[in-house]
Amino acid sequence: MELGALVCTPREPQCQVCPVANVCVARKKGLVSVLPMITPRPAATKRRFIAFVVHHKGKILVRRRPARVVNAHLWEFPNTEILPGDGDLQKAAKLALGLKPAVIGPICQIRHSITRYAISLDVYEVTLNGQNLKADGKWVKRNKLGVLPFCSAHKKILARLNDLK
User: What is the pTM of this model?
Assistant: First the structure.
């Protein structure tokens, strides 16, 4: 493996120091500049999510990601994926929280990439005004959020919240 990483690199092969240069087919056939053929990476799939930072009685709602999904069992803020062109916050809140909150305010936008996805995560603050929240999760004091293992995109949200203190 180190031979391909250090000596026989796609852009600048070091044939003069290669220990297998005398049996190299690419060198014998004059194909060193052509092999290996590097295929272009596929374009990243764009995905858009809306996350909600829900405050209630000095605590913030977080939840664990379910098993058998990317970042399973890590913590996150309630969120939902939305389709391109859809920006209805009340509808997204209903999907993520089970209610349409009275107060929604923007916090930030996070750009994140994971494997082949380019993710845009719009983050909003929600204050409950006597509403019954139907979302499952755990209420955690703000100063205790840092001890939970968050997925990396949601760590960025947590960092922004800490900046806003």
Answer: 0.77
Topology at the third CATH level for domain 45-164: Nucleoside Triphosphate Pyrophosphohydrolase (3.90.79)
DSSP string, 53-88: EEEETTEEEEEEPPTTSTTTT-EE--EEEE-TT---
- Per residue in 35-54, pLDDT tens? 777 788 889 999 999 999 99
Under DSSP, the state recorded for 40 is P
CA distance 12 to 18: 12
Tokens of 138: 């755990």
Q: Domain extents for the chain? A: 1-39, 45-164
- pLDDT band at residue 156, thresholds of 50, 70 and 90? very high
